[in-house]
Design goal:
Distance between the termini: 69 Å
Length: 608
């Protein structure tokens, strides 16, 4: 049974969409006609692995599931985006537009999102119409646990890996990324643990404890668009493979792996004081440390509890996407709604730990610092839609809202971007690309054809270095961060009458403009309308609050808190300063000194 059914609905909300979908439109010709050769990716190819080697993940649940939903491998994976990537309407809507712009692009997309389709052969045709239920889980248990490190390391890699890699010949990957995965054709399970007690054949694999494994799919470049010697990008000649399989040389669509690889986390580790990692650890170094937190639990129903079992929740920032998947699959017996709800909760928790806020009032300014606590850029991942922004609300003496920056209208699902800072990445078309495609140069939503980075002001992680990040295709564009900087400072003018302020940081990855683009640009099928209806029914991508701080007094000379600086405030300030009251800390340094008196001189004037 095919899973590529954009007309399948499971609630009255989508009934109208189903009727629209019955009359599917005829697919338009792609703007750029690429061949499978243009999109060739080294690694395991279709036909090289018997489909029978990849068993259904429900078989894994016999031993690894149904005994501890909070910690066991099966239940935590089942509620993750990885365990549902082949059921994701957002992905299918994105893939439709990619195929409209670039023929055969969907094959490339499916290598990451539905990698089992490479084994089953269902990645062709590239529109996903051949996908079946066995592909629906996306990234299955066995897909990960039969992966081979493509770069053999003598004395570290299992000896069994060498003949597998040698057998690939010229198809052997030399880098991590672009879904250049290599699978064991004998389906021998691998794990980072050296001492499991298994009824099936097992190989100890250090690769599975490294971020290099995660980089397989979390480092994505457009293989048909290559970096030139001057740092710009150009389309490759049609009908031939990319001149290199190094993702650094391909136009960046996701650089999460490089962002981490070049950070302090991957280079010695960072003590995060228990913010991430679960039970018993504070120093974070690998991707798994944060995204597979430890717990005292069993990994198998037949084995004893371990103090450092890894939860397979793979929580990132996909809470809003999991909402959409849950709505789309609510009547699907193969999907666990409780597991999806747990996966969503884990994603929200991860977001709420990924950033911190510092807020101080200094003179007539409210100074806000957003600190990136994650091991990659904030936000990171797939470039389309994801954004983080600062919201500032100033309140008067009676609690009334005086002014707001970064206001979000929950009725219209629109953000006031002009009044605040939005951290995001945008791509575009160069003049060269515009001439080649007949489209307009500048920012674009057509990711498959983009060849320029128009904006990337996302906050880098600890250990950031401008030159290193630029060399890996992850530069800062439209902003400035010093080497080593993993925070951003913004100043907001304190308006007259304001006596307090609340500052929040929000995250969103399904904004209205992007979801409407996926609907309106679709001239091929009904995935765009299906997605839009699901988005409407699940809160319209309601922003998730990552962090918030409230400052009770924003005008430090306004001691009677009536919203104005008056003569009486002078006497109140001096009395407080002489009495050692911290309320007289006018410069915001957290202490009392002569500096506070000089700072107060700038405030002892009537507020305009």
């Amino acid at each position: 049974m095919s899973i590529n059914r954009p007309f399948r609905v499971s609630s009255p909300v989508l009934a109208a969409v189903a009727l629209i979908g019955v009359a599917a439109t005829i697919a338009a010709a792609a703007i750029i006609n690429l061949t499978m050769e243009d999109l060739f990716i080294p690694g395991t190819q279709m036909g090289q692995i018997s489909p029978s080697t990849i068993i259904d993940s429900t078989n894994c649940a016999v031993c690894h599931g149904n005994f501890d939903a909070a910690n066991e491998p099966y239940a935590t994976w089942r509620g993750s985006l990885m365990g549902n990537a082949g059921r994701d309407p957002l992905f299918f809507a994105q893939m439709t537009l990619a195929n409209q712009d670039v023929s055969n692009a969907g094959y490339y997309c499916m290598r990451c999102h539905v990698p089992s389709a490479i084994v089953t052969g269902h990645a062709v045709p590239p529109d996903g119409s051949a996908l079946t239920g066995v592909d629906a889980v996306g990234v299955s248990c066995q897909l990960c646990h039969t992966m081979v490190d493509p770069i053999y390391k003598p004395g570290i890699s299992p000896a069994e890996d060498l003949p597998i890699l040698t057998g690939l010949g010229a198809d052997k990957p030399n880098h991590y990324g672009n879904s250049m995965f290599v699978l064991d054709p004998l389906a021998r399970r691998r794990s980072a643990r050296p001492d499991p007690q298994t009824p099936h054949e097992f190989i100890a694999s250090p690769f599975h404890a490294t971020g290099d494994m995660c980089g397989t799919c979390h480092e994505v470049g457009n293989v048909a668009v290559s970096r030139q010697t001057d740092g710009t990008y150009r389309y490759n000649a049609i009908g031939q493979r990319s001149p290199t399989d190094n993702p650094d040389d391909h136009f960046p669509l996701e650089r999460t792996y490089s962002e981490w690889k070049l950070s302090a986390f991957a280079n010695g580790g960072v003590d995060m004081g228990g913010r991430f990692g679960g039970a018993g650890v504070t120093t974070m170094s690998s991707c798994q440390d944060c995204h597979m937190p430890r717990a005292a639990a069993k990994l198998c129903v037949l084995t004893p509890s371990r103090p450092d079992a890894r939860r397979h929740e793979f929580a990132g920032a996909a809470a809003q996407v999991l909402d959409i998947i849950a709505a789309y699959t609510q009547n699907d017996p193969s999907v666990s709604q409780p597991a999806l709800a747990a996966g969503r909760a884990a994603a929200v928790s991860m977001l709420q730990r990924a950033a911190s806020l510092d807020v101080h009032a200094v003179g007539s300014s409210l100074n806000v610092r957003v600190t990136n606590e994650s091991g990659h850029k904030l936000p990171t991942g797939h470039i389309e839609g994801r954004r983080v922004w600062i919201n500032v609300k100033f309140f008067g003496a009676a609690g009334q809202l005086v002014h707001e920056h970064g206001a979000y209208d929950y009725t219209t699902a629109e953000l006031d971007t002009a009044s605040t800072t939005v951290y995001e990445m945008h791509v575009g078309l160069s003049e060269f690309a515009a001439q080649a495609t007949g489209l307009t140069a500048g920012p674009t939503g057509r990711m498959a054809m983009a060849d320029t980075i128009e904006k990337d002001n996302r906050i880098p992680p600890r250990g950031f270095n401008n030159a290193a990040y630029e060399s890996r295709g992850a530069p800062v564009v439209g902003a400035a961060y010093a080497d080593g900087q993993y925070w951003d400072d913004r100043a907001f003018s304190i308006p007259g009458g304001a006596v307090s302020a609340t500052v929040s940081v929000y995250y969103q990855n399904t904004p209205k403009e992007y979801i409407e683009h996926l609907r309106d640009a679709n001239v091929t099928d009904s995935w765009g309308t299906t997605l839009h209806a699901l988005w409407e029914s699940t809160g319209r991508g309601e922003p998730i609050k990552m962090a918030t701080r409230t400052l009770s007094t924003v005008r430090r000379a306004d001691f009677d808190r009536n919203g104005w600086v008056e003569v009486q405030d002078i006497f109140d300030f001096l009395n407080a300063w002489l009495a050692g009251d911290i309320a007289a800390d006018a410069d915001g340094w957290g202490d009392l000194s002569v500096r506070d008196i000089f700072e107060s001189l700038t405030l002892w004037f009537p507020t305009p």
